[in-house]
Write a structure and sequence with these properties.
Blueprint: E1 3-9, H1 31-49, E2 54-61, H2 69-83, E3 85-95, H3 99-102, H4 105-111, E4 115-121, H5 125-130, H6 137-150, E5 153-160, H7 167-178, E6 184-189, H8 197-203, H9 212-228, E7 233-235, E8 238-240, H10 247-253, E9 258-261, E10 266-269, E11 272-276, H11 280-290, E12 294-299, H12 302-313, E13 320-321, H13 322-328, H14 333-336, H15 339-347, E14 351-354, E15 357-360, H16 368-375, H17 378-382
Parallel strand pairs: 1-2, 1-9, 2-3, 3-4, 4-5, 5-6
Antiparallel strand pairs: 6-8, 7-8, 10-11, 11-12, 13-15, 14-15
Helix pairs in contact: 1-2, 2-4, 7-9
């Protein structure tokens, strides 16, 4: 079976106030040093998790579009040498829509990137300032145009359910976004994550998050409009035209093996969970001392793997194949899912079951977190 590879670039020009990702601002970055270190981490990972070709590579961050294209090309060349690429491999790079980064798009495409994920985040300048973004709408649209010229596949992110946002405001913005013709959209509700600047601002009452009822209405509106435009949700926050689903992210949601290299990167391979050192300097020290950046490597038991597979798979519109998962982890189907609770919520229109396949309905998706707690037995999660 093919494998997915995640490469983390941890640097940003500025830390956004809503972001809890592993991103860091540094005055300068030694690109030669980082190239050597990332190549070393790649080689170690291939030694212990080789033998299967890669079906996807994903450069995430941080802001990977700050990477020199030559560095991206070197990493891809080494990944192909170490693992091999499947025909039609998907190679995605996350990018911010500044003019400086957009100017690299042609070179990044030449390096091998064939899919870009743009962090537009909003089509409203006031909202962009609130979100702490360094670009404006005009720059976003210019970068999107350049991306569509250079890459075969383009996705972009928007954040909605902002304080004070109404259904009319979001509908106007979303209809505009749908008119750009990209094959994939990632549409996220604003969440206040612990440890972020926004969490501090909410605690100090500088602003109040949008209320839950309005947020739920916006979620329903989002699903309705994207479906009507032929780009329906296939995961709780991700929408795609036929053939445009993110193959890399599907590896996570379908609980297939993936390797992660770079600071803070997680991996799941051969029943082992890996976590790299989070702080860039600690990761570099690990490379220098032992030849890789792994901070923790842990064997996962069958119950823990099954729990993760359930929690990830139920995010998908296609749901999960309960019998296949049970067989994979040598468990009984009733170990994986509380079928009585599933039937109860099916009666409420929140879940569905068709033979061995089960999932969460459109009406249930806004309540996904609560439903997961009900459907996945506590004994499985705690194992």
């Amino acid at each position: 079976m093919a494998r997915a590879l995640y490469i983390h670039w941890p640097f940003c020009l500025k830390k956004c106030p809503y972001c809890d990702f592993n991103s860091h601002v540094r005055d300068g970055v030694d690109h030669a040093l980082w190239q050597d270190a990332l190549l070393a981490d790649l080689r170690h990972e291939a030694e212990v998790a080789g033998g299967e070709p890669l079906e996807s590579v994903f450069f995430g961050g941080g802001t990977p579009s700050l990477m020199p294209p030559a560095l991206v090309a070197a990493l891809l060349a080494e990944a192909e040498r170490l693992w091999g690429f499947t025909p039609g491999i998907e190679i995605t790079l996350e990018a911010n829509p500044s003019s400086v980064e957009a100017a690299k798009f042609a070179a990044l495409a030449a390096a091998g990137v064939n899919r870009v994920s743009l962090g537009l985040q909003s089509l409203d300048d006031v909202a962009l300032r609130f979100l702490g973004r360094l670009h404006n709408v005009a720059e976003s649209l210019a970068a999107l145009e350049v991306a569509q010229r250079n890459f075969g596949r383009v996705s972009f992110d928007l954040i909605y359910a902002l304080p004070g946002q109404t259904a009319e405001m979001w509908e106007t913005q979303l209809r505009r976004a749908l008119g750009f013709g990209t094959g994939h959209l990632s549409l996220y509700q604003l969440t206040i994550e612990a440890g972020t600047r926004f969490a501090t601002m909410v605690r100090e009452r500088e602003f109040a998050p949008l209320d839950e009822d309005t947020s739920a209405d916006l979620f329903t509106l989002t699903r309705k409009l994207t479906t009507a435009h032929g780009i329906p949700a296939y995961e709780i926050s991700n929408h795609a035209k036929p053939g445009e689903r993110s193959r890399h992210n599907l590896a996570y949601w379908q609980y297939r093996d993936y390797s992660g290299v770079g600071p803070g990167a997680h991996g799941r391979r051969n029943g082992i969970a890996t976590v790299r050192h989070r702080k860039p300097e600690n990761w570099l020290a690990g490379i220098a001392s032992v030849g890789h950046g792994i901070a923790q490597e842990r064997q996962l038991g069958a119950c823990e793997q099954a729990s993760e597979a359930m929690l990830m798979g139920l995010r998908l519109g296609e749901g999960i194949d309960l019998a296949a998962l049970a067989a994979r982890f040598e468990l009984c189907p009733t170990d994986l899912c509380d079928l009585d609770r599933l039937a109860f919520y099916a009666g409420q229109g929140l879940t569905w079951r068709l033979g061995d396949r089960l999932g969460v309905t459109e009406a249930g998706m806004p309540l996904l977190d609560g439903l997961l707690g009900e459907l996945v037995p506590a004994r499985l999660v705690a194992s």
